[in-house]
Amino acid sequence: MSITTQAVTTQAVTMQAVTPVILDGDPGHDDAIAWMLALAHPRLDVRAITTVAGNAPIEQTTLNMLRLATLFGAEDVPLAQGCSRPLVAPPQAAPSVHGASGLDGPTLPEPTVALQECSGVELMARILRTSDRPVWIIATGPLTNVATLLMAYPDVKEQIAGISFMGGGIRSGNWTPAAEFNMLVDPEAASVVFASGIPLLMAGLDVTEKAMIMEEDVERIRQVGGVAGHSAGGGPGGTSITEIVAEWLEFFFGFHRELGYEGAPVHDPVAVVALTHPEILTGQDMVVSIETSGAYTRGATVGDVYHTTGKAPNTRVFLDIEREAYVDLIVEAVEHFSEVTPS
Ligand code: BDR
Ligand code: CA
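^ inputs. structure came back:
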């Protein structure tokens, strides 16, 4: 039996002129870069940003969100703090990857933006209920907020166009042999999402381990230059966004270099690219389920690669990416925030 790894058709993900999205994540170096891509893209309308506990505790991911919104000049985007712990499991963070702050490395601006008074899940529900069109959710952390939304506000399901998420891996895990970090942190939440019937785009390790940024790419980003204290934000002391992104990547690189990687797999932006540039991705539609027990396999995403269940696929699983085109998209987003003319 052969695997059909067809080029992903754009049918399910063709963007309307402007596609409304909610960004939900646990920043996180790669979450930060994912949000930069989303905020830079002219055909994504970022309607809200919410945080979840994951890479760091919720207070820290929320502070990072406020700093990032300040950095990227996103003061008009409603921001809210989401769930502080997984549905069932105790929280676990990833300081070995992202540092104790969740976003160690360059100094970021102190926030000049404020949180909404409601919770992240309430904000998601409000945005969905009041939208003139279905909204995509781009989730780059554990799926706790998304699952809570679906359980607490089932009426909003109709208003969710789809969920594009970073998480899982059909072939392997990265936090245990079987489980990827976002899935391992909250498998019960992921289970709710996989069973929801909502169109799902999965940027798991199968593709994100190929979404690699090399040393020379970091140098290319650095050469973008740009204006310090840019009107859309910028870092403290005149640090340009270019320099901040380069330093994030270098920090992220450090952890992966010790593991023997040639570059840094920049996972989370792939969930944005799945909407904005699906033509650089290939994948396969399949049934994906998540293991919530299992002595060795809790948090594993089990993909029915060979259609053994005979069930209709619930997930489009991305498997490959045109790496150089991916790097170009990151460079273009940096250029967008640096007031420089693209070369
Ligand atoms: C995922 O885990 C986090 O550390 C990253 O931000 C990414 O979302 C990769 O396994
Ligand atoms: Ca993340």
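The longest strand covers residues 44-51. The pocket of beta-D-ribofuranose (ligand 1) is lined by residues 28, 30-31, 55, 94, 97, 140-141, 166, 174, 180-182, 267-268 (CB under 6 Å).
thumbs up if we can close this ticket
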